[in-house]
Amino acid sequence: NVFDGVATSAQYADLAENYLADDTYEVGTVLIFGGEAELTTTGMKDDTRVAGVVSENPAYLMNNSLEGDNVTALALTGRTKIKVIGIIQKGDLLVSSTTPGYAIRNNDAKAGTIIGKAIQNKDDAGEGIIEAVIGRV
């Protein structure tokens, strides 16, 4: 459907843009700029190439006519799911981890490495999915 008008609200909460990824990734996967296409995962903690998180249902999707293999909606800002490892508290800064596609907390993170801030707690050390505000520092 094509909408031409003024929107005053949206059902979903992130702003995303389509990019070409080197594989198919699950919602919430942390991606960086790089790889065979435009986006890939990383196994580097605090990677400065961090791009965003795979979006599920963006409120606004830019570059929606992009064609190619593995077109991926990348959440650039706003509220969305993110795959995390470890104990997370609301307000923690999130960065890439050594486990590809996952974020960890690092409240001493440097500019350029921060994906966003957690808005949900996670009380165990394992893998999980929480909501975060992407692009907030």
Question: How would you describe this structure to a colleague?
Answer:
With 137 residues, this protein is an all-beta fold. 0% of the residues lie in helices and 41% in strands. Strands 1, 2, 3, 4, 5, 6, 7, 8, 9 and 10 form a ten-stranded mixed beta sheet that branches. The radius of gyration is 15 Å and the shape is globular.
Mean pLDDT: 93
Question: How much of the sequence is in beta strands?
Answer: 35-45%
| Discrete helix count | 0
Compute the CA-based radius of gyration: 15 Å
Distance linking N and C termini:
34 Å
Low-pLDDT sequence parts: none
- The SSE order reads EEEEEEEEEE
Number of strands: 10
Which percent bin holds the helix content? Answer: under 10%
User: What characterizes the major β-sheet?
Assistant: 10 strands, mixed
Alpha-beta content class: mainly beta
Task: State the main characteristics.
single chain, 137 residues, mainly beta, 10 strands, 41% strand, globular
Topology record:
Layout: E1 14-20, E2 30-33, E3 39-40, E4 50-54, E5 60-62, E6 71-85, E7 93-96, E8 103-105, E9 114-118, E10 127-134
Parallel strand pairs: 1-5
Antiparallel strand pairs: 1-6, 2-3, 2-4, 4-6, 6-10, 7-8, 7-9, 9-10
Question: How would you concisely characterize the structure shown here?
Answer:
Helices cover 0% and strands 41% of the residues. With 137 residues, it is mostly beta strands.
